[in-house]
Structures are given as structure tokens and as C-alpha cells.
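pasting for ref
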Amino acid sequence: MDIIVIGAILFICMILMLTSGVWVALTLTGVSIIGLSMIGNDSIGLLLGTSSWSAMTSWSLTALPLFIWMGEILFRTRLSQDLFEGLAPILSKLPGKLLHVNILSCGIFAAVSGSSAATAATIGRMTLPELKKRGYDDFMAIGTLAGSGTLGLLIPPSIILIVYGVSAEVSIARLFLAGALPGLVLIVMFMGYTIIWSLVKGKSAGKSESIEQTAPEPEYSFKDKLLALKKLIPIIILIGGVLGSIYQGVATPTEAAAIGVAGSILLSALLGSFSFKGLIDSIEGAVKNSCMLGLILIGAHFLTLAMGFIGIPNALAQWIASLGLTPIELIIYLTVFFVIMGCFLDGISVIVLTTSVVLPMVTQANIDLIWFGIFLVLVVEMSQITPPVGFNLFVIQALTGKNILYIAKAALPFFFMIGSAIVLITAYPSLALYLPGLMSS
């Protein structure tokens, strides 16, 4: 049977299974079995067993449950409250004031949680009621949270970067470092937009202060700001311990994750929110999430193997080569493709479903796989705030009760800013490759 026909049948089977509610892991495995059966391969059981074993015995993968556990522990602390109380006095003079707390709190929490949904939920639970109480513009408060919540995917330690690293067989430590500068660029872009928005709104309203502030703000002295900094010290030490140990070559990502777990338990105790029940709940949450991701990775590994036997990746790579596309043209097409995929699937599913087919094209075009990982995560960030399945939209809808289209509209400027970041890393690849290059040297 022709490869094009097989590919079309498998694609239809995958869409039907996903839309009928079949788990992503079972969909991947099912499509693999159908594909191998169509080419007459009678060693399906053996291939599934060997691919499952090789998928789950990768040493790099051991960092995944540890970082998930670290995020689960911190999710149950009063860290978000300390971030708010620590950042509010420092940012009180910037146009936009406490709206910047949304952005920076998400950036800092992302550096210890590794999860976009956990970042948006944890920070939003603390900041949105406080911003509403102080009279801030609801539309902008939701927009800054929706956009900044996606930073959990990019700023290391990122769970989705670990999944990509295992799928693409590239260094997770280098991926973590590659995500740092683009993450900082996004934070600066978000804060810059918030400042401009606040100044424009304030000016158009004929007020000396920004329109989003209708309630009086407390005045903070220099001493208050110094005292507020004390609340940020523990989390900064934890971030430095995890990321610094990787950058200095002192620890592998797995060892850094273990440092992060120990540090998060200690931080939980220092914040006075440690309890035996909380510890058990965090372990339970980490086990559930790790098992879910483990099953998806097994299915993805088996699909990659099946695609190789069928010959679809090689056929696609040859087809792309015959088109004579430049790397920039390929990136444009892939951006559109991934944004559309992200409208219907969560970020991790997008990566595990497509890497077996897309990576041969990327390799054929001589695109750096570390750079491509950061590009892919940025596109997935865009999809996190795109209806109908943008996961961050659902998280914020649960927090606010607002219509999902209202939240998507509030997040739209941040969608375009993430798109601008993709243009930036495409024009200046060193934004993503500079730090990994230092590590290599």
C-alpha cells in the first residue's frame, strides 16, 4: 500500500480517536498498531515491549517526576502570597503598578514549578482578588495573568522542555539554558506593553495616574521596600540552587531536580505551610501527573518506531527537500501548523504527536534542535491562550467565572507578543543558543 494512503488513513484514525475522547497515550499506541498491521508487521507485541522499556528507562526522564513533585509542594505553600507582598512595594512606582506583580510573580513561580497551568492557577488565586479589591481594570488583570501564565512552559525548569528533550534526544540541561533568555525577553515585553497601556489609558482619561487604578494605593517607604525584599530571598535562593547547579555543571538536571525537591520542602517548612497531609497530597499529585506523562511518552516512543518502519518521516523529509523551502519558509509553515494543532490539543500532546514526523524535516533543513525546541515551546505558549482548548483560558475561567472568549480577547495582545518573540529568536538565534553555547564551551 502506498505510503501516502497509509499516512492519510492513520491521520483520520488519530483524529477520530482523539475527538471521541480516547486518551492521548492510547491513541498514539492504537495508531501505531494500525500502521504496523497495514504493512504486515507481525512483531507488534515485541516492538511495543522494547519501545516501552527504552522510553521509560532513559536517565534524563528521572528529572520529570522530581520537578513535578517540586511544583506540587510549592503549589501548597503561601509562596504566591509572599511573592505578591514582596513585589508590590518594589513595583508601586511603575505605570501599571500591581499589574506587573502578575507578570513577575508568574515569571518567578515558573522558575520553580515548570508548569503553565500551575503558574496561572497559583498566582491568579492570589493576585486577581487583590487587584479587583484595589480597583484595577479587570480586563487587563486577566490579560496579564493569561499571558504571563504561559511562562511556565519556557522558563526552566520546564516540564514540556523535558518531554521535548527526551523525544528529540537532545540535552535537557542545554534546553533549560536556552529557554532562559527568551523567557526574560517575554517578561520585558509584557511589562513594556503594560507600561504603555497604562500611560495611554491614563492620558486618554485626562488623569495624572493610570486609569486602571481607582482605589488608593498604600505609600511605601524605602525601608518597606527593603523589608519586602526579605520575602523574596528564599525563592531566589531556591531558583539559584536549581538553575545555578545546572549552569555551573555541578549537577545534572535530575540531580538539580532532587535539590529542588529538598529545597521546596525546606521552603515550605520556613513559610510555615508544611504539613504531613500536604506532603502526602503533593506526592499523590506528582505520581498521577508523572504516570499520565509516562503513558504518553510510551505511546509517543512507539509511534516514532512505527512511523520509522512505515517510512513516513523519510518520505516527508524527501518531499520537503524536493519543495526547496528555505528554513524560514519551513518555520512559517510549521508555526501555522502548530498553532492550529494547539487549538485542539494541549501542549505536551502537540509535541509527542508531531516530533516523530516533524523532526526529520527540521533535521533535513539543518535547523538546530535546541533552537527548534524553544521555537516549539513558544508556539505552544501561543496555543495555551487560544480557544477552544487553550488550557490557561480554562484555568482562568475557573478562577474568575468569566466567558472564555472574554479571557481570550484579554490575552490577545500577549498572543501577538509571543509571536513577536518567535520572530526575534528567528532573526537572532543567539537569543536561544548563547547560553547553551557557553555551557558547551
